[in-house]
Amino acid sequence: MEEIVNKVANSVLEVFDLEDYYPEGIRTQIDVSQWLYEGFLLKEKDFREALKNEDWSKYQDQYVAIYCSTDAIIPAWATILVTLHVAPFAKKVVSGTIQDLETALYQDILSTIDYSEYQDKPIIIKGCSKKPVPESAYIIAAQKLQPFAKSIMYGEACSAVPLYKSKK
Question: Which region, left, alpha or beta, applies to residue 117 given φ > 0 means left and ψ of -120 to 50 means alpha?
Fold first, then answer.
């Protein structure tokens, strides 16, 4: 009987797992419409007073996305003002949804990695994740890895989809 060999375990493939870079912490959305008259109209004096009376410390060490759940037309300064109130407490603040926040977090993290260790190596960007890794993070990772990789695949080692092969 022939010995069963685990080809995946013996592979030279380098696994790039975005979950390894997932920043732990609470994600929160702040809906600006809560401070608008009937959720749609920004009355500057009332808006500023509401922000001044808000307990911003409840966002301590959280990742915050600022958005508006209504179709209100909000001047840019209003979102900036909310940002200035929450920023001293939050780890990071973005304008947009939780998805936009996740993208911004990965943009920051993936821009600090030294990708030279992947030089001329076949890489698989691990596809399945238990954490909410946005699709945009995979796109960013692929772009960062491309100048170094011999090849890039996506998925799991047993069923990877080839995406890129160096012409070197």
Answer: alpha
Q: How far apart are CA 112 and CA 156, in angstroms?
A: 25
Q: Which long-range contacts (CB under 8 A, 24 or more apart) does 130-134 make?
A: 130/19, 131/19, 131/22, 132/102, 133/18, 133/19, 133/22, 133/102, 133/106, 134/99, 134/102, 134/103, 134/106
Query: pTM of the entire structure?
Result: 0.85
pLDDT 10s digits, 72-115: 999 999 999 999 999 999 999 999 999 999 999 999 999 999 99
Cα distance between residue 109 and residue 117, in whole Å? 17
Q: Which residues contact 100 (CB under 8 A, 6 or more apart)?
A: 65, 94
pLDDT in tens, 123-143: 999 988 888 899 999 999 999
CA distance 133 to 74: 30
